UniProtKB/TrEMBL annotation:
The keyword 4Fe-4S does not apply. The keyword Iron does not apply. GO terms for molecular function: peroxidase activity. This is Dyp-type peroxidase. Keywords: Oxidoreductase, Peroxidase. Signal peptide: none annotated. It comes from Haloarcula terrestris.
């Protein structure tokens, strides 16, 4: 990852004598005319104004749960040009190219362009933005706290479409699914990091050669843990995670964690023990299907009686008005040959994500039983490690090119 000093030097060179204040004034202009001299998006009526509004475009299972696309690619981006009408038009035309080429659904291509802490910090508005630099949220982890200018999220059931979209955005591919490439993100950004992954039955088993995954993982497992992630009752609604007022209204905040998993010992446990660690002691393997799970809020009682608590029963306590406060779009990865999760979380306020992680830590339960420790007997914590964190703001679709106050 490029250094923070390097970023400032590049932006200083781009903005000349005006420095970062010049950058800020250019961005203020962009706020009034987000796409420069371009006509309105011709497909605007067919697309949700919220970039993060995917749910109506997803497949569903028999229990009504939204099923994420099976394949993801993430691109961490560094800005290589100064903000300007021309740069904004390039970004907007690049995103319109994706929309012209594929339907905005799982069979086609779902996408998000979010803007990171480096971008807001560079023109002096990080404190006023809805995001902040990532924080260490656990005394058992020492993550790399990362800063990027932007992140492009691509997701599809068809992996070849992700490869084609990447080539169109960051290489020289002239057309994409029959549509002319009108603009390339690679003309404005350089790719600082590229990440990928998958979710769905059969895919974890197909990658059982990665470190941390035993060869015995069943074909039916949608995640390396073996359990389904994304039950509708455990997910915040898209309305709840949308910023409701102010200059960033209609957008949302996005947190990305890379979490390494070591599940070799996990699959040596009995199924009943895995259910208890993932969910809680009140459930048996027969109770765990894809339907909604009743939440009894008995985690303290389970801690004192059993000396062990489940992951789900801790996290489920992080609610407002009885409803979850974050929307997860996490997926498996084997980046670097190590099994893990790219934990993509959407929320109206980053404090909601931090509150959810605090509930997951479960340290307030240690006093209930001597066998319950920071990691041991504490849900999934002994099997996972957070290795990086980064934060982003996701603007509405009509303000996705260089958002500003």
């Amino acid at each position: 990852m490029k250094s923070r000093r390097g970023l400032l030097l590049r932006l200083s060179a781009f903005t000349g004598a005006a420095g970062l204040s010049g950058c800020s004034s250019l961005l203020a202009k962009q706020a009034e005319s987000p796409t420069g001299n371009l006509d309105p998006n011709p497909r605007a009526d067919d697309l949700p104004i919220r970039q993060h509004a995917w749910n109506d475009r997803l497949r569903r299972d028999g229990d009504g749960n939204e099923l994420l696309p099976r394949h993801f690619r993430l691109f961490m981006l560094d800005l290589d040009v100064s903000p300007s009408d021309s740069a904004a038009e390039t970004v907007e035309l690049a995103m319109r190219t994706l929309e012209d080429a594929y339907e905005f659904n799982s069979d086609g291509l779902l996408h998000i362009l979010g803007w990171g802490t480096s971008y807001f910090d560079a023109h002096g508005s990080l404190d006023a933005s809805p995001i902040r630099s990532p924080r260490v949220l656990s005394r058992t982890d020492d993550p790399d706290l990362q800063a990027f200018d932007a992140m492009l999220v691509l997701a599809s059931d068809v992996p070849s479409q992700l490869a084609a979209a990447e080539s169109a955005m960051f290489d020289t591919r002239p057309t994409l699914a029959g549509a002319d490439v009108q603009g390339r993100l690679g003309d404005v950004f350089s790719v600082a990091d590229r990440r990928g992954g998958f979710i769905g039955e059969g895919l974890p088993a197909a990658h059982a050669d990665a470190e941390g995954v035993p060869s015995t993982i069943p074909e039916s497992a949608p995640m390396f843990s073996g359990f389904f992630s994304g039950r509708s009752g455990s997910q915040a609604s898209e309305d709840r995670i949308t910023i409701s007022d102010g200059p960033y209204a209609g957008g949302t905040t996005m947190h990305l964690s890379r979490i390494n998993e070591a599940f070799d010992n996990w699959w040596e446990l009995a199924q009943s023990e895995r259910v208890q660690r993932m969910f809680s002691a009140e459930f048996s393997p027969e109770d765990i299907d894809r339907g909604d799970l009743p939440f009894a809020d008995m985690v303290r009682e389970h801690a004192s009686e059993d000396g062990q608590v489940g992951h789900w029963e801790k996290v489920a306590r992080a609610r407002k008005d009885g409803e979850p406060i974050i929307l997860r779009r996490d997926f498996n990865t084997i980046d670097g040959g190590q099994a893990g999760i790219h934990f993509l979380s959407l929320q109206a306020n980053l404090g909601d994500f931090e509150a959810t992680r605090d509930a997951m830590n479960g340290w307030w339960l240690r006093e209930e039983h001597e066998e319950l420790r920071d990691r041991q007997n504490n849900g999934l914590l002994e099997f996972i490690e957070v290795v990086s964190r980064a934060n982003f703001y996701v603007p509405p679709r009509d303000r996705r090119a260089f958002p500003s106050t």
